[in-house]
Amino acid sequence: DAMVIQNPRYQVTQFGKPVTLSCSQTLNHNVMYWYQQKSSQAPKLLFHYYDKDFNNEADTPDNFQSRRPNTSFCFLDIRSPGLGDAAMYLCATSRLPIGVPSSYNEQFFGPGTRLTVL
Amino acid sequence: AQTVTQSQPEMSVQEAETVTLSCTYDTSESDYYLFWYKQPPSRQMILVIRQEAYKQQNATENRFSVNFQKAAKSFSLKISDSQLGDAAMYFCASQGAQKLVFGQGTRLTINP
C-alpha cells in the first residue's frame, strides 16, 4: 500500500546533541511537509518542500533544518535540541498540481516520530 | 492569514448517540478548503471529511457530516451513531494556498 513512513517512531536524544528524523513516501507526491505537534496542541507547520523548493515558515527556529535529497525522502535535522523541542514530529505529503496556486490537495500524514530530549 | 478555533477542548457522547463538534475559522482567501481530521491515540492523523468553500452543499461521508455556514465562518462536524472507534482527537483545519492551519483540537470520548 502507498504510504508515508516515518523512522524512527520514537527517538531519544540528549540536550544539544544533533538528531535527524526521517520521512519517506511511496505516493510519488511532489510536496512534503514537516509539522511539530506538542502535547495536546495542534500541529504547527515548520516548513515544506514543493518539489525541490524549500519553504520555511517565518517563525520556525533556525535550529530546525530540512533536506530533501529526492522525491521519496525528506529529513528533519535539529541541530541543537532543547527541552522545548520535545514533541511529536509529523511528516505529510500531498500532490499539488503545477501552475495552480490554490487548489485542493489532501495531505497524507505519517504516524509521527515522538522526540524526547533528556 | 488563517485562524481556526475549536472552542470545545473535550466532548463525550454515549455510544450510538449523535455528537456535534464546533469549529469557526477566519481567512482572507477567497478560495479555500475546510477539513476535519481524526487523530486516534498513538495513531496517525487521517482525513475524515472535506468541504470546498465554493460549494453550498454540506459534505457527508457515511456517519460523518458537516454544517458549513460560510457567512458565519462556521464548520461543525456531526457524528451520528457514535462508535467506540470514533474516540480520538478531532482537528478542524483550513487550507488556503498550500498551507494547512489546524484548530486546537477536540478530544472526543465515547462512553459504552
Summarize this, please?
The complex is a heterodimer of chains A (118) and B (112). Chain A is mainly beta and 118 residues long.
Commentary on this structure:
The complex is a heterodimer of chains A (118) and B (112). With 118 residues, chain A is mainly β. Chain A is 0% helix and 49% strand. Chain A has no helices and eleven strands. Chain A has strands spanning 4-7, 10-13, 19-25, 31-37, 44-50, 53-56, 64-67, 73-78, 87-94, 108-109, 113-117. In chain A, strands 2, 4, 5, 6, 9, 10 and 11 form a seven-stranded mixed β-sheet that branches. A four-stranded antiparallel β-sheet of chain A has the order 1-3-8-7, with no helix packed on it. In chain A, strand 5 and strand 6 form a beta hairpin. The radius of gyration of chain A is 14 Å and the shape is globular. Chain A starts with a strand and ends with a strand. Chain B contains no helices and twelve strands. In chain B, the strands form three sheets. In chain B, strands 2, 5, 6, 10, 11 and 12 form a six-stranded mixed β-sheet that branches. A four-stranded antiparallel β-sheet of chain B has the order 3-9-8-7, with no helix packed on it. In chain B, a hairpin with a 2-residue loop joins strand 7 (60-61) and strand 8 (64-69).
Name some characteristics of this structure.
heterodimer, A: 118 residues, mainly beta, seven-stranded mixed sheet, four-stranded antiparallel sheet, 11 strands, 0% helix, globular, B: 112 residues
In percent, how helical is the residue content of chain A? under 10%
Distance between the termini of chain A: 36 Å
- Overall shape of chain A: it is globular
Overall SS class of chain A: mainly beta
- Order of helical and strand elements of chain A: EEEEEEEEEEE
Q: Tell me, rounded to a whole number, the average pLDDT of chain B.
A: 93
Q: Mean pLDDT of chain A, as a whole number?
A: 91
Proportion of residues in β-strands of chain A: over 45%
Query: Could you describe the largest sheet of chain B, including whether it forms a barrel?
Result: 6 strands, mixed
| Strand segment count of chain B | 12
**Uncertain segments of chain A:** none
